[in-house]
Amino acid sequence: MPSPLDTDDEAQLVRRARWGQQAAFAELYRRHARAIHALALRLTGNPSTAEDITQECFLKMLQFLGGFRDDTPLRPWLKRVAANAAIDRLRRDRRLVAIEEEEAHPGHGSDPLLHAESLGVLRRLGPVERTVVWLHAMEGWSHPELGRRFGRSESWSKSIVSRTLSRLRHELDQPEPHDDP
User: Measured between alpha carbons, how far is 57 from 63 in angstroms, rounded to an integer?
Assistant: First the structure.
């Protein structure tokens, strides 16, 4: 069975899907939907919204199949579409609010992103913080890209990431409360 990132096999599937073969589209969906849904869920924190974004991505893929180059992997494009859709939802829902300036208190210890997802820390972040931090740290978006996409400055993105990571470090460094009297 080919891997989801096998570009030769994927290129054939894209060509067949362009020609209207539903089985090819279904196979592309099967290979990539789970990863796209996982990204959308991480960014939005909402399973229903993540499902909507996943569906939007694949509908856009159908619209743009004719423009895909055969040697270009599909998953990075789908992930970009999902991230943009999550940002659009944030903006449309008017959740994008200015985050007050706070002093950054750099913590010590390990990188909080290494443990954040397993501890559920990302779910405690606001939608803007979660999206900016995840896209920067895990998906490789640059601060200029994030600033432009959110209609803000590069320094806005840097500030969000810095303050959020500082807060995560602080939270992860706190001892767990014990049930002992």
Answer: 10
Whether residue 105 lies inside any domain: the answer is no
| Residue 162 and residue 86 share a domain | no
Mean pLDDT score, 115-138: 76
For 151-173, how does the pLDDT look when each residue is reduced to its tens digit (9 = 90+)? Answer: 999 999 999 999 988 888 887 77
pTM for the whole thing? Answer: 0.66
Structural contact between residues 115 and 121, judged by C-beta atoms closer than 8 angstroms: yes
Residue 142 maps to which CATH number? 1.10.10
Please say whether the beta carbons of 163 and 99 come within 8 A: yes
99-102 long-range contacts, Cβ below 8 Å, gap at least 24?
Answer: 99/126, 99/128, 99/129, 99/159, 99/160, 99/163, 101/159, 102/163
| Domain hosting residue 44, numbered range | 7-92
Map tokens 């820390």 to a residue. 121
